[in-house]
Amino acid sequence: MNKWVYLFKEGSAEMKNLLGGKGSNLAEMTNLGLPIPQGFTVTTEACTDYYKSGKEITEEIQAQIFDSLKTLEEQQGKKFGDTENPLLVSVRSGARASMPGMMDTILNLGLNDISVEGFAKRTGNARFAYDSYRRFIQMFSDVVMEMSKTFFEGILTEAKDSKGVKFDTDLTADDLKAVIVRYKAIYKEKMGEEFPQEPTVQLMEAVKAVFRSWDNPRAIVYRRMNDIPGDWGTAVNVQAMVFGNMGNTSGTGVAFTRNPSTGEKGIYGEYLINAQGEDVVAGIRTPQPITKLAADMPKVFERFMEIANKLEAHYADMQDMEFTIEDETLYFLQTRNGKRTAPAALQIACDLVDEGKITPEEAVKRIDAKSLDQLLHPIFVPQALKDGKVLGQALPASPGAASGKVYFTADEAKKHNDDGERVILVRLETSPEDIEGMHAAEGILTVRGGMTSHAAVVARGMGTACVSGCGEIRIDEQAKVFELGGETISEGDYISLDGSTGKIYLGDISTEEAVIGGNFERIMGWADGYRTLKVRANADTPADAANAVKLGAQGIGLCRTEHMFFEPDRIPKIRRMILSTSQEAREEALNELIPFQKADFKGIYEVMEGRPVTIRFLDPPLHEFLPTDEKDIADLAADMGLSIEQIKDACTSLHEFNPMMGHRGCRLAVTYPEIARMQTRAVMEAAIEINDEKGFNIIPEIMIPLVCEKKELKYVKDIVVETAEKVKKEKNSDIKYMIGTMIEIPRAALLANEIAEEAEFFSFGTNDLTQMTFGFSRDDAGKFLDAYYKTKIFESDPFARLDQSGVGQLVEMAAKKGRSVRPNLKLGICGEHGGDPASVEFCHKIGLNYVSCSPFRVPIARLAAAQAALKENTSK
Ligand code: PEP
Ligand code: MG
């Protein structure tokens, strides 16, 4: 018989995969002898079994749940559903990886019409008992039965309004009894049955609801954003309730052992007197800073600090803890390694190394590579900020500067962001349903909520600037306006937010890139010592190249030369080249482009100071360069001495039905060898001159794109060699150069051994290779991929995260085949996947020499490469 349920005392921290993060930590804390309300964990395997069994919990699992419940009753001296002294439990999700707020929680389970009376008598606190019951009905209806919360919130608000009071705590037991009658009536009306009174039914329905919540849309989005596999499942923790809402000697809170925004050492958090957990997270009442507890309940605070320090020492990491004080007795409800901003992650890792608690190797392993993105977030341009008008200030919930147009719903924010706008999401408070809109936003502003509110926690995780708890705002979400600081801001108006100071500004304040601090360099230095995979950048201009070097790039893996032709003084020349009808005319136009292209290459070579630079020859279909608006067409006609009609006809003749698979890549050089000649000349002259001027020893790397056949590569290569040798002779130079190719068509991967006979290096163009392997257009796949995530056909976007089983197989095979004929074949990747940690790990595993990604993702790739190397060493 399989074991599906574990009492807390039967588990340990090592059982995270089976018990989930929360369950294994509760077990570990129980083993440490800490004050934990006892309970049991239904395993993640039970969750996967639930899905396998057609969303049913098998009898075997149910029996084990009831057995454990019995033990819990004995431990607590209370009985489930008892009319005198009922056991109440919380039912909470807990996956292997923490997914804050993504799945469901039910509190106060076990109450019904009878037991609530016994509970009131037993505790001598009728108000508290009825408050617990009404909370339970509300949560059960929302989470388990999926009824809208608004019915219940409306009833509660009416009850407060009719008494003329502001807070829930101002309602008496009788008021709450009346609320409960109305809650149950609305439940019956909407669900067509009475609110369930049998606690074992309540429990089983709640466990199912938590299992179900593993697959709710927001959890699916969260998993995709955080690379969490869909088949892990969540565990369910059933834990005896303790009550923070028993009066003024009770309370509940959330605290971190170090500041999760900055990493600063010292307890950080907040609590509410006379409240349950959801009050703190929902941000409806404004919590007190945790340090105030020292004055309110000194003994409790002392014990709290003792346990917090013990937990941090035990896990050797910053802890995020939930606690409840029930009538001056302290309980810990959970602990976990706290989510943190990237600056905080670096600060904490460096401090822990300095405190002798972890090694540099451990520090490198712990940083979430993706989160480094946040460090590179913009700040306001100081001068622009000086001129900015401050509208108000609230909590600095998540650092970074952001400006954009205001939208009041997550859907609008997402829609306008998809249309290319920078958006700021303004909400009364956010909830997990808002996740996609929050993701789309540059910044988030909320009226309600503390530093641990949903908006704050989620924005910090995403690295999105957030200002929360701005009570001064008068907001009308229906009318889509808000007032602040004497201004009225409507939908579509610009505002700017500083998530580091909490200031809210009028208008669109320009931002600039952040300055990277010492902790970053320290961690990166350690990482560079461990990694074997090199990291290059995709950069097309000297400015991008300089940025790449600053961020640690060891070379350029992809310089897309077409981007150089779009500037106003160049585009007419390339258009002339494209529309010329004779080779002479084309050559003439191309000759005019050589000085520009050569100057670009010299600029890049100069910045790269001798580091390798791979220059990719012209790749896109030619029609991308052609004019579309009437004025440009007229200008071009005048310039070329042709009629407008002739230009239009020429443009039409270049039209392709499927340009991505059309006249592009090396096919351009096959049809117009003069393009390859021009580009070779520009590369070679630039390298020779800069080597002479600066004393570098640049070996140009010329890369031919979109090759599918050895003879095709050879044809273009011969043109390059002939021109390169000519330039060398003219310049009396013995410079070396390399010619390689991109592997981005499946046929090239299949025939990589043949192609390697002509190529000195391969760079995997995994954007096109993904497109051509899946048969998904890289420009349009977004339109249907959402449906693939929702239906769980795909868990992640294959254009962002390398599809290791399909596309990855081609890459691995091509690498092997290539090296079988040319053992020292240099291998790299330059598709978008080069900056994705999971894909970087794959590249390390299959023995590529380098990855190349956009400059801002270079640190991510460096860290991911180090983590891949360390992981490999541990598994050896
Ligand atoms: C690729 O296809 O992966 C690639 C890097 O080239 P591009 O994105 O320019 O097509
Ligand atoms: Mg490509």
Automatic annotation (TrEMBL):
The cofactor required is:
Mg(2+)
Record keywords: ATP-binding, Kinase, Magnesium, Metal-binding, Nucleotide-binding, Pyruvate, Transferase
The top EC class is: transferase
Q: Which residues form the Pyruvate phosphate dikinase AMP/ATP-binding domain?
A: 57-296, 303-348
Gene3D superfamilies, from UniProt? 1.20.80.30, ATP-grasp fold, A domain, ATP-grasp fold, B domain, Phosphoenolpyruvate-binding domains, Phosphohistidine domain, Pyruvate Phosphate Dikinase, domain 2
Residues bound to Mg(2+) are E744, D768
Q: Which family does it belong to?
A: Belongs to the PEP-utilizing enzyme family.
Say which domain of life the source belongs to: Bacteria
Q: What protein name applies here?
A: Pyruvate, phosphate dikinase
Q: Give all residue intervals belonging to the PEP-utilising enzyme C-terminal domain.
A: 521-868
The uppermost taxa in this organism's lineage are: Bacteria, Bacillati, Bacillota, Clostridia, Lachnospirales
EC numbers: 2.7.9.1
Where is substrate annotated to bind? R560, R616, E744, G765, T766, N767, D768
Q: Which residues form the active site?
A: H454 (tele-phosphohistidine intermediate), C830 (proton donor)
Q: Which organism is it from?
A: [Clostridium] fimetarium
Q: What InterPro entries does UniProt report for this protein, alphabetically?
A: ATP_grasp_subdomain_1, PEP-util_enz_mobile_dom, PEP_util_AS, PEP_util_C, PEP_util_CS, Phosphohistidine_dom_sf, PPDK_AMP/ATP-bd, Pyruvate_phosphate_dikinase
Q: Does the keyword Nucleotide-binding apply?
A: yes
This enzyme catalyses: pyruvate + phosphate + ATP = phosphoenolpyruvate + AMP + diphosphate + H(+)
The record ties this protein, via NCBIfam families, to: PRK05878.1, pyru_phos_dikin
* Domain PEP-utilising enzyme mobile, first and last residues per copy: 421-502
Q: Which GO terms describe its molecular function?
A: ATP binding; kinase activity; metal ion binding; pyruvate, phosphate dikinase activity
